[in-house]
Amino acid sequence: xxxxxxxxxxxxxxxxxxxxxxxxxxxxxxxxxxxxxxxxxxxxxxxxxxxxxxxxxxxxxxxxxxxxxxxxxxxxxxxxxxxxxxxxxxxxxxxxxxxxxxxxxxxxxxxxxxxxxxxxxxxxxxxxxxxxxxxxxxxxxxxxxxxxxxxxxxxxxxxxxxxxxxxxxxxxxxxxxxxxxxxxxxxxxxxxxxxxxxxxxxxxxxxxxxxxxxxxxxxxxxx
Length: 223
Hints:
- This protein has 2 domains: 7-77, CATH 2.40.50.580; 82-215, Trna Endonuclease, Chain: A, domain 1.
- The chain has a 6-stranded mixed sheet. The protein has a 5-stranded mixed β-barrel with strand order 1-2-3-5-4. Strands 10-11-13 form a 3-stranded mixed sheet.
- It is globular.
- 17% of the residues lie in helices and 43% in strands.
- Helix 2 (144-158) packs parallel to helix 3.
- The protein is α+β, with helices and mostly antiparallel strands.
């Protein structure tokens, strides 16, 4: 996915999970943070950040904060909507006959429903912005919704779907995501049970620039 225009700034503080204050053009600007996760290891005072201005009428903030340069750790896209957009682009090149986003299944909306060669697929997407020593971890905050989605995927697998969960890695140099059991043990347990039940776990390394988040060209569904 591509952002139409990027503005660099310097991070100052995050008063709550929805907004941040940045230094931009010689003044302090309040911006919307497009990620409700903690991102504590990324959003540090003085960090270089990147903003986009969606131009939505009636907004209280002009800019969205969508990426941050971690000191010594590379560029991270932290836009929680970007992984689904990147996966939709990726799936369009993977030869599926049908790709339907926001598919209603059970009591949830699963991110993607696909069909190929008579098989039905359900794919849930999770963005990973926490990396430690070259390994990604998810989640960075407890996610009961994430556990619910895993349970739905397990049910779908039993009912004949090819169910999968894809972790979109929102930084470069990381190829593996592990469950963050210290932060949310229930998610880690549910993911392990899902793998035992046949749910596929996919890691999607990406190419990152301030303007773009794209799944790497050498990553394919069949791998």
